[in-house]
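Sample intake sheet
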Amino acid sequence: MRIKLPNKDSAGIVTAYYLSSSTYNHDELDFEFLGNKEGMPITLQTNIYMNGQGNREQKMYLWFDPTADFHDYTILWNPFQVVFFVDEKPIRVLKNQTGKGLEFPSQPMKVIASLWNGESWATDGGHTKTNWTHAPFTAHFQGFDVAGCVGSNMNSCSYSSLWWNKGEGFPPHPQSVLFMVNSKKKMQIKESMFIRKVHSCQILLLLCQELGR
């Protein structure tokens, strides 16, 4: 999905793009963009629900202004791992470790995009409220594309013939192989290093800001 976020003063406004199942103990994979005052950086928050349990938020600042233009936000979910991408760069990975007794998203999910009022928590922990004189707030979505299998036949999602299980041909640049083509499906070293660099810089910055409040 290509998304352009609300500009100017969007404090308290949450733009979301996510996958979610329809069960009570649902699975969910979230992109959430937390608005901010004009001139202040917007926070990207990813979250993962498994069997109805969330509280797995990770926050970061992007390396560009997401209100100035459209950017690509992608979720790869296969039997081996979940990967969140921004402009083809992986920013978060959850490996399937059910063999070690850990949970992993397994329910059929639908795609949802929304724009909503989160002023009770989204900006400065809820201290900065929405300035409704700037309404309406508009988020732009375009270029949506999905490749997947039918939810009623989850076993078919594991077929090795499917491109998302091979790790090659990831759009829009098939030459950018995101996964090693072997049984372990490990990420390439350069992609793993990018994730570590993003997290070490951005999460440290957010932690310092939280401690400074």
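Comment: Residues 189-211 form the longest helix (23 residues). The CA atoms of residues 4 and 68 lie 7 Å apart.
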